[in-house]
Amino acid sequence: MDNLLEVKNLKKYFPIKGGFFRTVVGNVKAVDDVSFVLKKGKTLGVVGESGCGKSTLGRAILRLHEPTSGEVVFEGKDITGLSHEEMVAKRREMQIIFQDPFASLNPRLTVFQIIVEPLEIHEIGTAEERYEKVCSLMDLVGLRRQYMHRYPHEFSGGQRQRIGIARALTMNPKFIVADEPVSALDVSVQSQVLNLIRKLQQEFGISFMFIAHDLAVVQHICDDVAVMYLGRMVEKAKAEDLYKSPKHPYTQALLSAIPQPDPNRHIDRIVLEGDVPSPINPPSGCPFHNRCIHVKEICKAVVPPVINTGTAENEHIVRCHLFSEEEQAKSKGETAKPTAESETTS
Amino acid sequence: MTNEQNKQETIKKETLWTKAVRKFFRDKMGVISFSIVCLYALIALGVACGFWATEWSELNPDMKNTGPSADFWLGTNILGQDIYQRAIFSTKTAFEVGLVVALVATMLGAIVGCLSGYFSGTWIDEFFLWIIGCIDCIPFYLFVAAVGFAVNTLAQNLNASFGIEGFEYFAMHIAMIATFWTATARLVRGEVIKIKHLEFVEAAHAIGVPGPKIIFKHILPNTFHILLVQATIAFVSAIKSEVILSYLGLGVKNTVSWGKMIAEATQEVPAGIYSNFFAASAFLFVLVMAFNIFADALQDALDPKKVS
Amino acid sequence: MTTPLLSVKDLVIEFNTEHGLIRAVDRISFDIFEGETVGLVGESGCGKSITSLSILGLIPSPPGRIGAESSIKYQGKELVGLPEEQLRLMRGHDISMIFQEPMTALNPVFTVGNQMMEVIMRHKKVNKKEALKMAVKMLEDVGIPAPEKRVHNYPHQLSGGMRQRVMIAMALSCNPHLLLADEPTTALDVTIQAQVMDLMGDMQKKQNMAVILVTHDLGVVAEFCQRVIVMYCGHIAEVGTVDQIFNRPQHPYTKGLLASVPRVLEEKVEFLPTISGTVPDLGNLPKGCRFADRCERATEECNAKPPQLTIDEKTQAGVACYHPYK
Ligand SMILES: Nc1ncnc2c1ncn2[C@@H]1O[C@H](COP(=O)(O)OP(=O)(O)OP(=O)(O)O)[C@@H](O)[C@H]1O
Ligand SMILES: Nc1ncnc2c1ncn2[C@@H]1O[C@H](COP(=O)(O)OP(=O)(O)OP(=O)(O)O)[C@@H](O)[C@H]1O
Ligand SMILES: [Mg+2]
Ligand SMILES: [Mg+2]
């Protein structure tokens, strides 16, 4: 059993209330039918544009948002049905790191109080043991012990992010959702925090779900990468495979849109038309069809199935009609399949 | 490294509060008004301890309506009571009313606001909002009169059946508390709704912190700046309302207050005797003025946007 | 070499804070030439935004002020100390600005069309009808679908990318010679960012204007700029062409910054190189080079006196470092 986490058909809809009696008039399909498997000690990167449901997915897995339907199997046990008390106990094993280093720490508590809180809640250790634990955590994330009794606002963004990481590590979790932990940081600070996360992966074998909108960051830190679009997971594969041969047209556009900090390398940019549609009123069929350059009739009507274009061992999952079996049969030899290699080096 | 250490040293003691205090003390008007408020507080404390103004109710039948003299600095009233002593004694009444009302109303507002905000969108919130709405609909003096009347009746019943005495003394306090807490509750509710979506609250959930602890450890302390300002506002309003209520005969019983003195003066002023009226008004005016300036300065000092 | 379009000399920007006077920008000098795109990069708080604001005389004062010896010359005309009315005439007409957050830069209670017409009518002598026509034309130019309908929309009815297009349309409506773009795409998604940057590039070529692109995204700079100014803590660390800065960085800070960016499609490295330490506090600056305590090449000399930036007249490149990489 080396599957740590298995997510099956997870959905999270937020009801939209309206009208005079505030009845439910619709749903925001923030996460729509997402499934994946995360192995022990591995890191899954989740990328996608703003509002595509990355944070909601992370929070639904931890049940910070109650999932609408679907299963979250953690160490062989479905946690969506757990009672409140059982869930509190499970929280020792699943933690979260937040994006905003300024909003994620209570301004009225000292660093010590913040890091020690999980131990107090779960009544672990004596006062001295807790103190020792906090000291070792601060050493681990690279904060000086002298800073223990300071308040968060006395620290820089990078240092605060370390405090948040230390808090998540207090209970020795097996799984951490990192929700854009470096997006708010400067480049030079970002690399410090990324290295810290890397160290935690290696030393403690913690599994991460690493949410980001920066594909370069994700590639650096993740084993597998999943691309989300409008609440759906449109592609998922091993990091190298996904970056070398992206299959879904959206992934290709996304990859080509990243500006490269290297004037010698030039990528033929695929500039998408239009904006990301609203998840309140998603397009019918494939949610990407109104921006896709390979759009066909079927895309407008039918939601694409989940297709594995890789091997059973080495999955490369795509949700796109271009890869469904009939299509592939039809277009053998033709060029309907989007060219995977769009990179040229000048 | 040493440089960084120095930097950390210099900002070490800068908590939100020390920052606010430092800002406050750079505001000259704020400091002056604060000193005046402190002086009043000292006077009130002295009265409460029986150091001065102990003869405020003493009657001097042969000294009715006299002008200022060495014995009676501000003269005497129609019953021959020392106006100066009465005005000083009233300071204690004012502070007592102000403090009791401000503390209880703010605490009540904080708790209701916190619960209402935390459970926003559920029936708990709807229920509290409904109560707040109802109370806010009733005209203030009408409501106070009604509550005062009800409490008086209750006090009589208590006295009759349980032998509890002096409950009617608090009729006015209760009436004011019942109206003043709603403003605080509304403000706190809004702030709590804002705070509860911040990531540190979510982090607390993720650790497994139970609900009540999240409310009282993580959320409520972060509304403290609002509570402090609301308490100062309630304090001033209570003192002013007390004057008006006492003037209308709905105020404190068995003691003296500036409002009562002004009420007495209604009979004296037509006769050309102003000392009662002026003494009470002047004491009241200076305190309210000073307290308002103090409250403004405090608000500025606590405003996180202005604390850079 | 031709005379520069914009010439900034010894620019000093100070702020009066409760901890005393801080110098957020300290004697920086640079030139901008016609038609070129210059990237202004650096860490958060290093003074990029206020430098670009100072060109338009938009430094909030108080608490801010521009130092006495500073000089900002636009086409030979001194802008520092120019009366407010004259500056206002230049804004939008000769020099335009685009801000990071399009929602705060647009007035939420007026329609997009109203706001665009106001700008047009201020600088061109046209009546309302013509102004509206021009507004629609501009929206069409920046690629907004159904522009005749969209002019009557309020800002909140547009998506972030569309708002930023409207901002660009407004900024370009009077054919400025110089465009100051302060992080125009930081608030946008990558695919939308690509759209907006493409658009800016097109418009720039069409109108042959100079652009100062403020950003902290080195990728954006590498793709869209010809020259780069690297700032660190209120100083200019290095100036050079994109090729020089990215391929042969001389300043240790520039080198460190470039190394610490993770890149797509490159061999995975276990740990990213980092610059240790943090940026010094503006209220408590070191005596010498501001980068010295994070720099591995620092010597006594660096701690004693800050190095001067000397810009080569011919190549317009230079570095402020005693021990630059060669
Ligand atoms: N509590 C909520 N109630 C209603 N709708 C919500 C709620 N939280 C999120 N949403 C909606 O769900 C969608 C997905 O939001 P989510 O925060 O997961 O996006 P994201 O991918 O994390 O975006 P970002 O990159 O901006 O953080 C959005 O359209 C958002 O408006
Ligand atoms: N109104 C102000 N009052 C006091 N200090 C200010 C003010 N505006 C800016 N500063 C200071 O000037 C410095 C530079 O600010 P600026 O906004 O130019 O940074 P920046 O390089 O644009 O950073 P970012 O990338 O975060 O936008 C900051 O350290 C800031 O503290
Ligand atoms: Mg998010
Ligand atoms: Mg800026």
Automatic annotation (TrEMBL), chain A:
GO BP: peptide transport; transmembrane transport
Transmembrane segments: none
InterPro entries in UniProt: AAA+_ATPase, ABC_transp_ATP-bind, ABC_transporter-like_ATP-bd, ABC_transporter-like_CS, Oligopep_ABC_C, P-loop_NTPase
PROSITE patterns with a match to the protein in the record: ABC_TRANSPORTER_1 (PS00211), ABC_TRANSPORTER_2 (PS50893)
GO molecular function: ATP binding; ATP hydrolysis activity
The keyword Lyase belongs to this UniProt entry's keyword annotation: no
Keywords: ATP-binding, Nucleotide-binding, Transport
Region span, Disordered: 327-346
Coiled-coil ranges (or none): none
Pfam family, one: ABC_tran
Gene3D superfamilies named among the record's database cross-references: P-loop containing nucleotide triphosphate hydrolases
Domain ABC transporter: 5-255
Family: Belongs to the ABC transporter superfamily.
Annotated protein name in UniProt: ABC transporter ATP-binding protein
Organism: Uabimicrobium amorphum
Automatic annotation (TrEMBL), chain B:
GO biological process: peptide transport; protein transport; transmembrane transport
Positions of the ABC transmembrane type-1 domain: 95-295
Localization terms from the record: Cell membrane
Its membrane topology: Multi-pass membrane protein
Ranges that cross the membrane: 31-53, 99-120, 127-150, 170-188, 272-295
Keywords assigned by UniProt, alphabetized: Cell membrane, Membrane, Peptide transport, Protein transport, Transmembrane, Transmembrane helix, Transport
Secretion signal span: none
Primary localisation category: membrane
Protein name: Peptide ABC transporter permease
Pfam families assigned: BPD_transp_1
Single GO cellular component term: plasma membrane
Natural source organism: Uabimicrobium amorphum
Cited InterPro entries: BP-dependent_transpt_permease, MetI-like, MetI-like_sf
CDD domains: TM_PBP2 (cd06261)
Family, similarity comment: Belongs to the binding-protein-dependent transport system permease family.
Automatic annotation (TrEMBL), chain C:
Domain ABC transporter: 6-258
Annotated GO biological process: peptide transport
Signal peptide: none
InterPro entries for the chain: AAA+_ATPase (IPR003593), ABC_Ni/Peptide_Import (IPR050388), ABC_transporter-like_ATP-bd (IPR003439), ABC_transporter-like_CS (IPR017871), Oligopep_ABC_C (IPR013563), P-loop_NTPase (IPR027417)
GO molecular function (one): ATP hydrolysis activity
Protein name in the entry: Peptide ABC transporter ATP-binding protein
One family name in Pfam for this protein: oligo_HPY
A GO CC term attached to the entry: plasma membrane
Protein family: Belongs to the ABC transporter superfamily.
UniProt keyword terms in alphabetical order: ATP-binding, Cell membrane, Membrane, Nucleotide-binding, Transport
Main location: membrane
Cellular compartments annotated: Cell inner membrane
Membrane topology annotation: Peripheral membrane protein
Membrane recorded as keyword: yes
